[in-house]
Write a structure and sequence with these properties.
Length: 471
């Protein structure tokens, strides 16, 4: 059978989609190539959130196509994901050596499409049509694809987005919100835990919107529209009901989720942080801007004051909570005063980590047509100033942890130094320590000895001195 190599651009949702496609192909008899040079099939799973991600994927495919034409004409080339969804046939028109373009609701069709192309029954396939029930098809896992025990796993709970922020192309590439049933999600989580997974991250474009527009029934055939509304029960939203159900799984140690939306944080979710011990004290809350005027232009649905109140409530519920965020600088019409409000919010909240993006116009989004587009040099300068402020805050917060005991879940060897092991605290800080593979999958205590840039270094010598329930 052929070998396949998948390169992924973008977010954790894309990483999860790529893993599911790889697992489906392996189940069909495909092998996973270690590099593109050894593969019979090369698939690029693409992102459209920013222009840079699209351009990287396009340049990569152009280079691959040039090599394939010269040296390996039998290799199959394909695009998947968000850019494939938004551009469709245009990608093959631009790059005629591409054989497959597969949209965001068609990942489960990858094996069938490749079989058709490899068998000569189809020359080119472009499939970006909507497909009801596709939210329940991303469930296969590789669990590293090796004999090594996988400690963590992503579980997709929904597809799509109904928020329609003015800067974002995702609702157009991922479609409207469609949620899986609680029983279906819990079943997948139980299976993962039975295979040694200790920590599960629930994934959705906006996870806090889970179930608000109904959930699908997994037992019905693919293609049938079976969304059923999940009512609020005992004051709990559908998402909190899902957290409760996953929390009941024996053997599961930790639950995370990403990405939420600030306006989806009701009191029931804040209360869940205090009530559910497996729900780790970590929250990624994209704020995007500290200016109410810009937030309104972005169609974010909350104010600066509402966001700061939410942070206060979360820290009251879990004082050790780690909070990260996303910022966009240089949004159309953003003035220096608007940007200063973003700086002041970053300093007021003191985020543990922040991802900063320069505004990137996306075609067919309202923001791309707004007046007063901010010049690129101004975007660059504001990006640098905010980055410096965020790094200064993080350095101080990470440095304050030196000397403290912290509990980590050991995930495996460090990427930068495989001779050392790495784990993650409950509040999502990475800790590197001297250890061995026997520690993989363990919840263990370490004493923090040093802090680097968004990385902590620990001493596991304290593991036998008692357990600590610190972040």
């Amino acid at each position: 059978m052929p070998s396949v190599y998948i390169k992924t651009y973008g977010c954790q949702m894309n990483e999860r989609d790529s893993e599911a496609v790889a697992a489906q192909l392996v189940a069909k008899g495909y092998s996973l190539a270690l590099s593109e040079t050894a593969a019979d099939v090369i698939l690029l799973n693409t992102c459209s959130v920013r222009d840079l991600a699209e351009q990287k994927a396009l340049r990569k495919m152009e280079n691959l196509a040039a090599d394939i034409r010269r040296n390996r004409p039998g290799v199959v080339l394909g695009f998947m994901g968000c850019m494939a969804q938004s551009r469709g046939q245009e990608l093959i028109d631009r790059l005629p050596d591409v054989d497959l373009v597969l949209g965001t609701q068609k990942f489960h069709r990858a094996a069938d499409c490749l079989d058709e192309i490899l068998a000569g029954r189809a020359e080119k396939i472009v499939d970006v049509a909507k497909e009801q029930g596709s939210e329940a098809t991303i469930r296969e896992h590789l669990l590293n694809g090796t004999s090594q025990k996988s400690v963590t796993a992503f579980v997709s709970i929904m597809q799509g987005c109904n928020q329609y922020c003015t800067f974002c192309i995702v609702p157009y590439t991922r479609g409207e919100e469609r949620s899986r049933s609680i029983s279906d999600i819990v079943g997948e989580c139980r299976q993962l835990v039975s295979q040694g997974v200790k920590e599960i991250t629930l994934l959705g474009q906006i996870v806090t919107s889970y179930g608000k527009r109904g959930v699908g029934r997994a037992e019905l055939p693919l293609g049938q529209d079976a969304q059923q509304r999940v009512p609020t029960t005992d004051g709990k939203s559908p998402f909190v009901q899902l957290l409760d159900a996953v929390h009941e799984i024996d053997g599961l140690a930790r639950i995370r989720f990403t990405s939420p939306h600030p306006k989806g944080y009701g009191d029931d979710l804040i209360e869940a942080y205090a009530r559910l011990p497996k729900l780790v004290e970590s929250a990624h809350l994209p704020v995007q801007s500290g200016s109410n005027r810009v937030l309104k232009l972005m169609h974010r649905g909350y104010t600066r004051e509402r966001y700061l109140d939410l942070i206060e409530k979360l820290r009251a519920a879990r004082p050790e909570i780690g909070i990260s965020t996303d910022f966009i600088v240089g949004f159309p019409g953003e003035t220096e005063d608007d940007f200063e409000e973003t700086l002041s919010l970053a300093r007021a909240v003191e985020f543990d980590q922040a991802y900063i993006f320069k505004y990137s116009p996306r075609r067919d989004t309202p923001a791309a047509e707004l007046p007063d587009q901010v010049p690129q040099p101004v975007r660059e300068e504001r990006n640098q100033r905010l980055l410096e402020a965020v790094n200064e805050i993080a350095k101080r917060r990470y440095g304050a942890l030196v000397g403290r005991p912290m509990q980590i879940l050991v995930e495996g060897p460090s990427r930068k130094n495989p001779a050392r092991m790495t784990g993650r605290t409950r509040c999502n800080r990475i800790v590197v320590f001297d250890g061995s593979d026997r520690h993989r999958g363990q919840l263990m205590d370490v004493k923090i000895t040093r802090a680097g840039s968004f990385t902590l270094y620990g001493d596991p010598a304290m593991v036998n001195l008692g357990r600590f329930n610190l972040p």
